[in-house]
Amino acid sequence: MKRLVILGGGESGLGTALLGKAKGYEVFVSDKGTIKEKYKNVLINNEIEFEDEQHTESKILNADIVMKSPGIPDKAPLVKQIRDKGILVISEIEFASKYTNATIVGITGSNGKTTTATLTHHILKQELEVGLSGNIGESFANQILEKNYPNYVLEISSFQLDDIVDFKPHIAVLLNITPDHLDRYDYKFENYINSKFRIALNQTKEDYLIYDADDEVINEWLMLNKIQSTLLPFSLTRVIENGAYLDKENIKITIDNNQIIMPTANLALEGKHNIKNAMAASTVAHLLKIRKQTIRESLENFQGVEHRLEHVLKINKVQYINDSKATNVNATYYALESMDTPTVWIVGGVDKGNNYEELFPFVNEKVKAIVCLGVDNEKLMSTFSNMVDVIIETQSMNEAVKIAYKLAESGDSVLLSPACASFDLFENYEDRGRQFKDAVRNL
User: Could you say which residues bind ATP here (predicted)?
Assistant: First the structure.
């Protein structure tokens, strides 16, 4: 019996444990932190051995295979020990994909992954049986065990791609690449770029790579590296023969001389970046033979994603917007770009080596006041204090929202778009977004 050790008892760890057990592995789950009660109960009910608040090396280093949670860095001493012993370390998507023959759509990029994955799933589910998983929702492994859909849309992070071996989506989508998570990649942008392109690592010419042809980083990599996939670029600025492009107010998608045209006038999501997300999702749908009418209707009735430019409430003619999912500078760039009113901007958290320069034009033009929300706000203070009249430090969401409420006048907006990770004051970006919404509702 092969021994499967799982590091991390979260959603992906639990799903892998259940699938592993069903496939005949001897399973052990180990988490340095605390495993949630509901997950513990599932492990106990399924008679799966586990530990939390510690890693017992003797029970880990005898593994045949280790699945590590994407949150655990390669630099962790335990991971180094495992690799030194020649034990294979994989991610959940690698493990789970061995047990399905489903058509997989894998979506990655620095920004827009969740929106594009959710939108793609929203279109496909009108005509196909399809699961949504990966970096979002219920784990891929557990869905394969319980639902076994013939199709999956997976949102995939670079951390999940770092630990794949044979994983291969039939359709890969690469939305964009901007510096993010560099603390995990030795502060080398090229390491992060290579990590993202692993999504196409095992693809053949029968598979597809849909990508943003306006992204210089992606274009440069494709010029210098060989790739087997059939390429389907999308662009806002030039005509694309095979792929998607914007022609005045219409998205035109051509695959093997079969063209469909989508008007952008009634897209549910606003902003240039969302036209790109819609292009990517529609190209996937066109490849999978979804009817044009279905694609069009789905694009027009899509509800959007929680914590992504989510309009919370209007109070005294001030709009409060929750963009807690903006965990890097580029995401905040899109948020500020889409603002058309004077803005009180709530920003801050764990800085991943951010360079705020690209935000300067928007801050000068649109931001009237900045509320810093983090344990350490020094970099934000020194970067922006010359650009705005008012910049204030806070240490809690309630305080930040109350100050923003005082600073905003009729016709303004209050935007939570942190540009940073959330782990200094919050459990995760969802927790941060919910606290923002609660604080706004309590004003």
Answer: 109-115
